[in-house]
Specification:
The protein is of the alpha/beta class and about 375 residues long. Helix content is about 40%, strand content about 20%. The protein has 14 helices and 17 strands. The strands form three sheets. Strands 4-3-2-5-1-6-7-8 form an eight-stranded mixed β-sheet, sandwiched between helices. α1 packs across α7 and α5 packs parallel to α6.
Length: about 375
């Protein structure tokens, strides 16, 4: 089992691991969250989502226990996934942390390798208000006697994460920038090319189908986890040049027709969209259809996005929880402060039409709710290859 924590890049790292392991001949279970359109996106075995009948049967079978325990939605989903992987007889599972790491429901696993991707500011009310505090929570996934992989090369973050791994008794402990390097990153419409070199080994020129310079780091973290796990898992690295161009992950700078879907839901995510748009230009004008949850840094996100877009359509995602839904009128006023044209449309379906009428390319972003709600209406299947 491989266990992946981090602020940004978890989904890309998990999917890269899954793809490489499947190409190496393994039957792979993948657990991720949240979903975009269909709950079953969370629990997948060899590319096939958990059957609806199995979900209903599992809930019927365990309803009384769930009620007695007062288990949360995520706890129930995690148990369901692990049970399904066991019954589906997977060879290996790749598990994404839900929130944090130390106290996350997934942290009952005993992985062959645990990895932490890039750390950023998100969920500060639970994880802390400094990068070091957040890193300490994420580093809670490291376990005694198993590999620990650190994908964030920044000194202050890597120092905290290495300390977590050493106190946990993890071995080996590998860190980006020290035990492997990523260089010569090139971003294009068909993905990202980069050179990956493990200390003491020859460099490899690789190509992931995921678009964005940061995707080179996510791919390298996934490969670093296989390398650190050793044995048959490290042998799977031989298939990486063939497997990486086949990696697919919905909602990560995903282009379909006139649309770009990106689930960026924090300031770092918004900045990476801008960076990627500069590296991989798209037809103009480009308008952003945006909704963000109220408890995110939505003001800063709008200002970060503004240099890369020609206008904003501000709306509210129907699936966003009412308690966390932003005020579109307030958001539109902030968007106008960026100097970009702004169209406020409270009706989500009309907002989609308004964006398409103004733009050659539409960027749907701000949350999983934004992307998922647009995909549901087009429709787009997030599990389609």
């Amino acid at each position: 089992m491989f266990h992946v924590a981090g602020t940004n890049g978890k989904g890309s790292t998990v999917t890269t691991l899954e793809t490489v392991l499947r190409h190496a001949g393994y039957r792979v279970g993948r657990y991720m969250s949240p979903h975009l359109v269909d709950f079953r996106e969370r629990i997948v075995v060899d590319g096939e989502p958990m059957p609806p009948a199995e979900i209903v049967a599992w809930l019927d079978r365990h309803a009384a226990t769930v009620d007695a325990l007062g288990a949360t939605f995520f706890e129930v989903t995690t148990l369901m996934a692990f049970d399904w992987f066991a019954r589906a007889q997977v060879d290996v599972a790749v598990i994404e942390v839900g929130l944090g790491g130390r106290l996350d429901a997934t942290n009952i696993v005993a992985p062959v390798a645990a990895g932490v991707t890039v750390i950023g500011f998100d969920h500060q009310e639970f994880l802390g208000h400094t990068l070091e505090a957040i890193a300490a929570e994420k580093g809670g996934v490291f376990k005694r006697g198993t590999a620990a992989v650190i994908g964030d090369a920044r000194a202050e973050v890597a120092r905290v994460l290495r300390g977590c791994a050493e106190r946990a008794g993890s071995t080996p402990v590998l860190t980006a920038g020290r035990d492997w390097t990523v260089s010569d990153v090139e971003v294009a419409g068909d993905g990202t090319r980069f050179t990956w070199q493990v200390a003491g080994a020859a460099p490899q020129r690789l190509h992931t189908a995921l678009v964005g310079s940061y995707q080179a780091g996510n791919a390298a973290t996934a490969l670093g986890m296989l390398h650190a796990a050793g044995g048959r898992w490290a042998e799977a690295l031989a298939i990486a040049p063939t497997a990486l161009p086949e990696v697919r992950l919905a909602g990560r700078f995903q282009r379909i027709g006139r649309w770009i879907f990106d689930v960026a839901h924090n300031l770092d995510g918004a900045r990476t969209i801008v960076e990627t748009l500069r590296a991989a230009p798209v037809p103009r004008p480009l308008w952003a259809l945006v909704t963000v949850l109220q408890d995110k840094d939505w003001r800063e996100m709008l200002h970060a996005l503004s240099p890369a877009v020609d206008g904003f359509v501000i709306t509210a995602a129907p699936t966003a929880p009412l308690s966390r839904r932003w005020d579109p009128t307030e958001a539109a006023a902030e968007a106008r402060a960026t100097g970009r044209p702004v169209h406020l449309e409270l009706d989500f379906d009309a907002a989609i039409g308004a964006a398409l009428s103004r733009a050659e390319t539409v960027l749907a972003t701000g949350s999983f709710h934004t992307v998922g709600d647009v995909m549901q209406r087009l429709p787009v299947n997030p599990l389609a290859r």
